[in-house]
Design a protein that fits this description.
Layout lengths: L3 E7 L4 H9 L7 E8 L6 H7 L3 E4 L2 H4 L3 H14 L4 E4 L8 H6 L4 E5 L11 H8 L3 E8 L9 E8 L6 H24 L3 E4 L2 E4 L9 E2 L5
Helix pairs in contact: 1-7
Bound molecules: 5-O-phosphono-beta-D-ribofuranosylamine (GRF).
Length: 218
């Protein structure tokens, strides 16, 4: 079976990108990471990608100023050059226009550090603690024009402890993210999901532990 060609888009350290690269080293993984694209030349993840022999590209948004269309067409050109089939946003900190999002409809994934639809936006761990939720976690979803929305592919939950800080809770969530993103990309690359309206439905043969990660005790 040919593997889906994936680009990971980053803006920073790229720990989720690294988790995807590691997962894709498994011979039976249905996707390969062929490009890491950053909008920031100083993104730490670029070096990690290069160390793994993966092509990198920088499309610096600052060069394009307010011209989002030009920024996005430069990204599209990179994606086309590498014959990309699926895009994974992993800490990519630019809002994308409906035009770009539409071009990648049901082929672009994002990971968000909360159990959506709770806690869209920033500072999710702080807000989870302040709200007093007992479960928190991460979500991988298809990207739609509205931020942190879109059909949910997979979710991973962690327990929230009474003495958690933003930092301790965030550390628990990022560990789940690193397990969750490879699992979600696998579902999509294997063609096990289909979108119906706002929902992402998973083929009935798929085991539940391929769709969500339940919290462990600690
Ligand atoms: C992650 O928490 C991800 O959920 C969010 O941005 C962060 C990126 O971290 N979208 P990293 O660059 O993958 O380490």
């Amino acid at each position: 079976m040919s593997r889906r060609r994936v680009a990971v888009l980053i803006s920073g350290r790229g720990s989720n990108m690294a988790a995807l690269i590691e997962a894709a080293k498994q011979p039976d993984y249905p996707a390969e990471i062929v490009l890491v694209l950053s909008n920031r030349p100083d993104a730490g993840g670029l070096a990690t990608a290069q160390a793994n022999g993966i092509a990198t590209a920088v499309v610096d948004h600052k060069i394009y100023g307010k011209d989002r269309a030009a920024f996005e067409s430069a990204m599209q050109a990179e994606l086309a050059k590498h014959r990309i089939e699926l895009v994974c946003l992993a800490g990519f900190m630019r809002l994308l226009t409906p035009n770009f999002v539409g071009a990648w409809s049901e082929r672009m994934l994002n990971i968000h550090p909360a159990l959506l639809p709770s806690f869209k936006g920033l500072d999710t761990h702080k807000r989870a603690i302040e709200t007093g939720v007992k479960l928190h976690g991460a979500t991988v979803h298809f990207v739609v024009p509205e931020m942190d929305s879109g059909p949910i592919i997979a979710q991973g939950a962690v327990a929230v402890h009474d003495d958690d800080t933003e930092h301790t809770l965030g550390a628990r969530v990022i560990k789940v993210e690193h397990r969750l993103y490879p699992l979600a990309l696998r579902l999509v690359a294997e063609g096990r999901v289909r979108v119906e309206g706002n929902r992402c439905l998973t083929h009935e043969s798929t085991p539940l532990d391929a769709i969500f990660i339940a919290p462990s005790e600690r």
